[in-house]
Amino acid sequence: MSFAYDKLMGGKNGLTGFIILAILILIVFPLLLDSFRLNLVGKYLTYAFAAVSLVLLWGYGGTLSLGQGIFFGLGGYAMAMFLKLEASSPENTAIQSTPGIPDFMDWNQLTELPWFWEPFSSFTFTLVAILVIPALFAYIIGSAMFKRRVGGVYFAIITQVIAVILTVLIVGQQGFTGGINGITDLRTLNGWDITSDSAKNIFYYVNCFLLLGVIIASRYILTSKFGRLLLAMRDKEDRVRFSGYDVANFKIFIFCFAATISAIGGAMFTLQVGFMSPSFVGIVPSIEMVIFAAVGGRMSLIGAVYGTLLINFGKTAFSESFPELWLFLMGGLFIAVVMFFPNGLAGLWQDYGHYITDRFKSVKNLFVKPASATKATTVENS
Amino acid sequence: MNSMITKGLPSIKLPALKKALSIAAIASACSMALGLSSTVAMAEVNTTGLAVTDTEVTVGILHSLTGTMAISETGAQEAEKLAIKQINESGGILGRQIKIIQEDGASDWPTFAEKSKKLLVKDKVAAVFGAWTSASRKAVLPVFEKENGLLYYPTFYEGLEQSKNVIYTGQEATQQILDGLNWVAKEKKAKTFYLIGSDYIWPRTSMKIARKHIENVLGGKVVGEEYKPLGNTQFGSVINKIRLKKPDVIYAAVVGGSNVAWFKQLKAAGITADKQTLLTISVTEDEVLGIGGENLEGFYSIMKYFQSQDNENNKAFVAAFKEMWGDDSVIGDVTQAAYLGPWLWKAAVEKAGSFDVDKVVAASEEGDIELTTAPEGYVKLHPNHHLWSKARVGKWNKDGQATVVYTSELIEPDPFPAGYQ
């Protein structure tokens, strides 16, 4: 029990934050929002996976990746390929020159399904692919760089370049990938209509539980010895290396783990939004993901989720109310966050949150016997 | 008529229907008492819960106001607003003024999907005028089909699509391509063609149709076919190949900002209109603003509309557009097609006597909705949701305007052309 409490939840503060987040996304949002807005929140929460992965990689690992969109995209495309194959049954595509292949392949004069599409007709394979392919890709990039001690700015630039290359590849090879349009018109999952409201609600909850699960798993990693090594590497990499640890392998591991998390987000995105396009792979979305983490507070897993929600709520609300001015308002929001809360929302909570919790405690103390209240305070202070 | 209503309303339960009918009765009684009997009551023209009141009907405009596409989409949304303003001034639709809710697609396809869903689900708009690129249309299409919305899409595009929920006011690929090729083969005695385009679905599909037509119908030869990534600015290698192959015609579908580099580099390489025939399907007055008329002088575009068209409809349209949006504004092909959207919708709604999407679509599919006041001359809505329109070849002048040198007969739209797929 104490293992679960300390390692998975991160102690008292962590538990409080976790429970508040869980209540907010599992109970408050579904009660307050209609299905359209709830679906939007579901979409935002898929970006939160990438933001959480950046807290691990950048906040704790000190390695800034400007290419998390790559992995978000890989996960999303894997899911989209499965759904597209299901949508391209010979009956649905009877008007094409070659029925039974996705419509964009037919437009591009392909006459048979490319070999790498074949396995994606299996749902099991697709689920495994969503978890494994991004990790494998991250392993290749990671080992090529970390083993050669490439880090810092160079790593950030290289990840960004890979994001560009992948975008160009997807756009250029449109016969295989759907090009700039992306993979669109996804309707069913194993015969189940994913565009219906009930399906969207189910995906919302699946998404929430996966996100909470990812936060718990990340907590576990951060509170373990590995997490402390990660921090040590961030602050003085050489000392860790001289102590006999293989720094590169730790970095590769956390990069792969972050890739997998982002990919889960991407797959959930495809399911909830109903299409995938190269606009999630490139530089702009990758940098947006960094902004989500920065606004939330790059040292806080839960803060990253709030950061994502705040930025995307802002984006939607501003652009709905001021379609011609909203970009300036977003810019203003970023400047305000950087100037006034350099540690993000999590920093804000750390600095001022105790006013709220203290008030809560003083209310609680009214109902508790004075003796035990004092005791509780001493335990906390210790 | 009865069967049509039930067909349009499969999900409405009887009590709800009764309630709707009683509201209709009260509303019509009220309006009669107020002496407004000319206006049909809300419940009769709107049985599916759209944002229609007794005095107002709400529509959506969804174009990119920010991002890379903003420069292209601005004209379209300006034309839509002009048309709506004119309709309102002439008494609105079924006695109702049109109210606009505008959303920004931000040149981002998922945003288009999100905003279209917002317009349909939250705002319950009766119709949406919007989308520009094929990618944005593909992104919003499932939303419109799922929520049973109605989209008027203004851009000339690749065809291969016909959705119940979309009216395509631009020309599909065959309407633009075939007549242009026939013209150039006849007028310029062209036999060899060099095809160049940006690398995405529209140029690729257009070139596929062009190649089949050149090889199978005109008996000509394609001596080169090349695609460059969107945003590409390096055309040196293509220009060298063109010099080597000496085609009779360069047939181009380069889009967006790439166009500026493409035409400037052609001119720098000495390939100008006095030595080389060039026919493009992707340059309108809007693009010429960026390219510069002097870099295009003497080259040809094939479109369905040019701002310089000399007819009464167009003169009135150009004057009204400049009055609303400034003397400097230019009007391209898509801008004019966007202007047709609200008018076609008005005609269909009035014919159906209802704002219900199913009824408006049914009225549109009867194939007799026509606009004699269209700036391009005359258009008619085909049951396949596309417009009958004419193709025109324009020769570009230094001042950024084109002289129309050829006008075709009215061409039947054929989004799934047999023999060209």
Oligomer: heterodimer
Query: What is the percent of helical residues of chain B?
Result: 40-55%
**Overall strand count of chain A:** 2
N-to-C span of chain A: 20 Å
Helical/strand content category of chain B:
alpha/beta
Average pLDDT reading of chain B: 88
Biggest β-sheet of chain A, characterized?
2 strands, antiparallel
H/E element sequence of chain B: HHHEHEHEHEEHEHEHEHEHEHHHEEEE
Shape type of chain A? globular
Task: Give an account of the 3D structure.
The complex is a heterodimer of chains A (382) and B (421). Chain A is mostly helical and 382 residues long. Chain A folds into two domains: 2-340, Orthogonal Bundle (ABC transporter involved in vitamin B12 uptake, BtuC), CATH 1.10.3470; 344-382, no CATH class. Chain A is built from 17 helices and two strands. Chain A has a two-stranded antiparallel sheet with strand order 1-2. The longest helix of chain A has 27 residues, at 197-223. The model of chain A is unreliable at 369-382 (pLDDT under 50). With 421 residues, chain B is α/β, with parallel strands linked by helices. Chain B has two domains: 50-171 and 313-385, 3-Layer(aba) Sandwich (Rossmann fold); 173-303 and 391-411, Response regulator (Rossmann fold), CATH 3.40.50.2300. Chain B contains 14 helices and 14 strands. In chain B, the strands form two sheets. In chain B, strands 6, 7, 8, 9, 10, 11, 12, 13 and 14 form a nine-stranded mixed beta sheet that branches. In chain B, helix 5 runs parallel beside helix 6, helix 7 (173-187) crosses helix 8 (201-217) and helix 13 (333-352) packs across helix 14 (357-364). The longest helix of chain B is centred in the first third of the chain and has 20 residues, at 14-33. Chain B starts with a helix and ends in a 10-residue tail after the last strand. Chain A binds chain B through residues 36, 39-40, 43, 95-97, 103-104, 107-109, 168, 171-172, 174, 179-182, 184-187, 195, 273-275, 277, 279-280, 316, 319-320, 323-324, 326-327, and chain B through 65-66, 102-104, 106, 108-111, 113-115, 117-118, 121-122, 134-135, 138-139, 141-142, 146, 158, 160, 199-201, 204-205, 208, 229-230, 416, 421.
